[in-house]
Amino acid sequence: MEKIGEKLKILRIKHNLSQKELAQKLNVSNKLISKWENDLSVPSLEYMQELCTIFKVDLNYFFKIRKNKKTQFTPKQKKDIKLASITLACTIFAVSIILLSIYVFAPAVWKNGYIKTINHCIENNLDLGYYSFSIQNKCDDEINITSEQGII
Question: Would the pTM of this model clear 0.85, i.e. be above it?
Answer without folding.
Answer: no
